[in-house]
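Following up on my earlier thread - several people asked me to post the actual chain instead of describing it. Fair enough. Here it is, all 174 residues.
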Amino acid sequence: SRWDGPGHKLLAPLSDGRPVIVHAVEAAVESGIGPVAVVWGAVSVADALAGLNITLVEHPGWAAGQATTLAAAISWASGRGAGSVVVGLGDQPGATAAAWRAVAHAEASPPIAAASYDGVLRTPVRLPESVWADLSAVCLLYTSDAADDLLCVDLGGRRIIKKNIHSHSTAQTT
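Reply from S.P.:
Thanks for posting it. Predicted structure:
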């Protein structure tokens, strides 16, 4: 993370005094696309998100990387019979409810849909059940001596997404 401010970046206040994560999660909730789960681990976000219609999913293994956090989200959704998940990041407060809806309702082929802002793909991203198994196997071996004892890089699903993407334009965010 490049955050060097005081406290955790998810809890940092924006100009309206509310934390970054509140803006990000409110957009997901306001989109009305379905139940919203927030997977957390590095810092508790329960107090910041109190009063929102969400489910908090604790992920003690968060330090192992974004792919494990994504796996926790998929496990939660799978346990509820979901056929897809729409994933966003708590530190990206600019994704609007409209962006969440556009991605959720994008054409089903190709299977993965992502928001596009001036041609740059960002979250939210829709991941259907058909790619969940592929996401759990994503790992790129290190070949550099500088990698020390690490065995793989957590790509957070980027390679699978790039191969199966359907970009959907959404409103420009600032």
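Residues 139-156, 167-174 have pLDDT under 50 and may be disordered. That should answer part of your original question.
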